[in-house]
């Protein structure tokens, strides 16, 4: 699937929904629960369950990223499936510390 910033995707095996924040200019195999994600407007029925080891879940409001290829997504609806590019699981990004205001 060709991804670009602003693209909204949903899982076909759980409730997870994301917005693409950063993506390469090439085809990207973005998955949730081990299955390819679809555009939010796609009316593909939600069937099955996330497959192990892609069943750790996603948290609303968290950013998930991977370095190669550089991809970052924002979770807008939590679900039971884990996000991945192919079989490489995306990790949750940590919040950046704010500078002190002394």
What fraction, in percent, of the residue positions are helical? under 10%
Order of helices and strands: EEEEEEEEEE
The end-to-end span amounts to 48 Å
- Count structural domains: 1
User: Spans of 5+ residues with little confidence (pLDDT < 50)?
Assistant: none
What is the CA-atom radius of gyration, in angstroms? 14 Å
Mean pLDDT: 90
The oligomerization state is single chain
Number of strands: 10
* Biggest sheet: strand arrangement: 5-1-2-7-6-10
Keywords:
mainly beta, 6-stranded antiparallel beta sheet
Structure description:
This protein is an all-beta fold and 102 residues long. It has strands spanning 8-10, 17-22, 30-32, 35-36, 38-39, 63-66, 71-77, 83-85, 88-89, 91-92. The strands form 2 sheets. The chain has a 6-stranded antiparallel sheet, with no helix packed on it. A 4-stranded antiparallel sheet has the order 4-3-8-9, with no helix packed on it. Strand 3 (30-32) and strand 4 (35-36) form a beta hairpin.
List the helices and strands and how they pair.
Blueprint: E1 8-10, E2 17-22, E3 30-32, E4 35-36, E5 38-39, E6 63-66, E7 71-77, E8 83-85, E9 88-89, E10 91-92
What is this structure, in a nutshell?
The protein has 102 residues and is an all-beta fold.
């Amino acid at each position: 699937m060709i991804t670009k910033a602003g693209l909204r995707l949903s899982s076909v095996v759980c409730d997870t929904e994301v917005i693409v924040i950063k993506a390469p200019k090439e085809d990207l195999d973005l998955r949730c629960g081990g299955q390819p994600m679809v555009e939010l407007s796609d009316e593909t029925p939600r069937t099955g369950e996330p497959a192990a080891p892609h069943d750790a879940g996603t948290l609303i409001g968290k950013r998930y990223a991977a370095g190669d290829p550089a991809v970052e997504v924002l979770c807008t609806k939590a679900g039971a499936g884990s996000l991945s590019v192919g079989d490489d699981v995306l990790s949750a990004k940590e919040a950046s510390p704010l500078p002190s205001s002394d």
